[in-house]
Structures are given as C-alpha cells and as structure tokens.
Write a structure and sequence with these properties.
38% helix, Aminopeptidase, 3-stranded antiparallel β-sheet, alpha+beta, single chain, 5 helices, 4-stranded antiparallel β-sheet
Length: 144
Amino acid sequence: MKPYHRDSKLHDVCELAPTLRFEDKREVETLGHTPEQALTIGYIFSQRCQSIIDTNGHVVGMYGVSFGKVWLLGAPGLFKITKSFLKYSRSEVEIMNKLFPHLYNIIDSRNDLHIKWLRWCGFKIIGKQMLNNVKFYEFCKVAS
C-alpha cells in the first residue's frame, strides 16, 4: 500500500496521540495541552482536517486549518514516508490557502523539522513571542 492522505476520523486522534514525535508533544504541552487535547481540538474545529496514512495503514500525522490557523502534528513514522508526505504538502497547503487566503499560527522555535517544512511549503517567519518561557515563531502564508 502506498502512503496517502484522507479526511480524518475521530479514532485517528486515539491512534496518533500516544505516538507523537517528542518535539510535537513538547510543543503542545508547552501550550498547556495533552496530545489528545491538541489533536481533538484540531479535529473538531478544523474546516479541513486530514490524516496521513503510512504503508502499513497506520496514522502517522494529522493536519488541518481552522479559520486560517494551520497546524500539523506527526509521529516518528512520518520520517519513513518523507518523499510521499512532501509530495502532497504543497498542494495541501494550496487547498487550505484557497479556503483561507491568510494562513498563520505559531511554532515552537525548537521544532526544527517543522520549521523546515513550513519554509518548504512557502510560509514565512514573521515574528516571535515568548510563551511559558519558550520562544515561539509566528508564521504566515498569504495566497498569491
């Protein structure tokens, strides 16, 4: 089976939450949430919420957009399907940018991999702020 993206289902939250990457778990905990809470909030409030499925049929990531606020959380298994994930990333961001001409959020400055992904997808770092004694970057992407 090839990796693919599909509309998220509530049980994807239960599968992904215990396997989040250390950096993603640390980020959501710094913001005051458990992985389950962060994924549930994303799932419930996103106008578009997608799950990333690996070659074994496991959920290795979820992402979405809620009123322009874009998010992504992943498991280490995402590294095993990097090529496939990157192949879909830009087009998925474009779909979200059609729904919301201004995409934005914040990201933990220690989450190097996601910062690289954001830049690869065309997002710009536009500022920084301290939250719970951790530096977060503000980022955005405006539809062209």
